[in-house]
Amino acid sequence: MKFFSICYLFFQVIFHFSGFSQVHFQEKAYQPTWESIIRHPTPDWFKDAKFGIYFHWGVYAVPAFGNEWYPRNMYIKGSREFEHHRQVWGPQEQFGYKDFIPLFRAEKFDADEWVDLFLKSGARFIGPVAEHHDGFAMWDSQLTDWDVMDMGPKRDITGELAEAARKKGLKFMISLHHARKWRHYDPAFEFDAADPRFAGLYGRPHHENDPEPSDYLEQWLGKAMEVMDKYQPDYVWFDYGWREPTFEPYKRELLAFYYNKGEEWGKNVVVSYKHDHLPLGAGVLDLERGRLDTLYRDTWITDTSIDRKSWCYIEDPDYKDVNTLIDNLIDRVSKNGNTLLNIAPRADGTIPEEQKQLLLGMGDWLNVNGEAIYGSRYWYIYGEGPTRFKGGSFIDNQKLVYTAEDIRFTTRDQALYAILLDWPGEQTMVRSLKSLKRESINSVTLLGHEGNLSWDLTEEGLTVNLPEKRPCDHAFTLKISYKERLPWEYY
Fold first, then answer.
1. Burial 454-481 (b: 16+ CB within 10 A, else e)
2. Cα 459 from Cα 83, distance rounded (Å)
3. Domains recognised in the chain with CATH numbers
4. Fewer CB near the last or first residue (10 Å), C or N of the chain?
5. In a structure prediction context, what are the per-residue pLDDT tens digits for the chain, which is 491 residues long?
6. DSSP secondary-structure letter at 121?
7. What b-and-e string marks burial along 274-302, b requiring 16 or more CB atoms within 10 Å of the CB?
8. Does the global pTM surpass 0.85?
9. CA 382 to chain CA mean position, Å
């Protein structure tokens, strides 16, 4: 049956790139042109959600060494992974990456249990890495035999997660990294990847600088269309592999397809991208392991990992603490950003206890302070305080120590939230609020604490007296309720 499905895929791709495609798209809301695609708006649900969870979970969790690039690095002579592999698993020509697949059984995976944890953690959208650079599909694909239904777990991981998420009212997402596969296995062709029997996983041998051929690009497009059409994700996150010029027409084709599908499904869908891989407005900008150091008027997102060293499960992780995860979330939200946090399950489908506790710690904080996060919008400034950093990607492993003077702002309805990133003691001053009018302030409260707080407004700022007992851990939210609409408000 898969042979006929593959034939159908290639027919569809050829059809879309033929003259008939123009007739097809004339009937749709979005055409495969950037001028049309950039008209697609960022949905309000995504602006409201602020926090999502995804997971690098796949065959690479079996060796649990180095990081998720083990499938490539295990073939690079002289690398830690190369030597580790030979010592633990044997020579690469005898035991290649493909031989890990039968060991990836996911025998303890329970989609409902995972989703319950994510819900308790405060996430509003969740989903899997549908296919990483290794080329192993985490869904029931009709376009390849190298997928979770035909090999390894022999169950539809993505389908189970989609069903479980929607039962609990969560938005469902997928991430796609498979554009990178063409170059990912270059070192493997000296070993077992040279065998044509395994070309469905590794690809066919080629020179290092050879551009992606049309059949590879068509397969990339076909897989992306298939997983979108089959599971109807609300959000699709794309890794950097599609930045190559060869992907240009295929990207336009895919985005028009997905945005049109969203219209057909009655869903407000969203795509994110890195760097300059899409034109401004074609999707939402993503900063990998990053943050911005200023307010950004377009919605953006950071994908980051709970582990500083790896995106997939490894046996010697270096986890961030709850305080760091929460401070980073608050800082991004104040600058109009979302957070997509990656966790790293084991190959058997269990989530390590340390990761669970970190997620639950975030959930505890959001249970108290969530009204300052979910559905909030940015103020005219993101915050105040002495702690500074240079924004960009790959910076969130820098250990920042925020003080009680570091404050971040969000707005919602007729309230301004001032989130203190550390506990100041008996009293705090919010200097940026000195321009507020005394008569316009209705009340000042502390989320998680009963009753109003006493306060004073001077030319230096808003001074607030705090209770003796802290209402939560990590960060503390003052709610300044306004009798009218806030000045400098953005919605």
1. ebebeeebbbbebeeeeebebbbbbbbe
2. 65
3. 2-288 (3.20.20.80), 383-482 (2.60.40.1180)
4. N
5. 465 455 545 545 554 554 444 445 668 999 999 999 999 999 999 999 999 999 999 999 999 999 999 999 999 999 999 999 999 999 999 999 999 999 999 999 999 999 999 999 999 999 999 999 999 999 999 999 999 999 999 999 999 999 999 999 999 999 999 999 999 999 999 999 999 999 999 999 999 889 999 999 999 999 999 999 999 999 999 999 999 999 999 999 999 999 999 999 999 999 999 999 999 999 999 999 999 999 999 999 999 999 999 999 999 999 999 999 999 999 999 999 999 999 999 999 999 999 999 999 999 999 999 999 999 999 999 999 999 999 999 998 888 899 999 999 999 999 999 999 999 999 999 999 998 888 889 999 999 999 999 999 999 999 999 999 999 999 999 999 998 776 665 44
6. T
7. beebbeeebbbbbbbbbbbeebbeebbbb
8. yes
9. 22
385: tokens are 């305080």
**Entry field: residues in the chain:** 491
Q: Which residue has the tokens 């897989």?
A: 223
Name residue, tokens 């008996």. 426
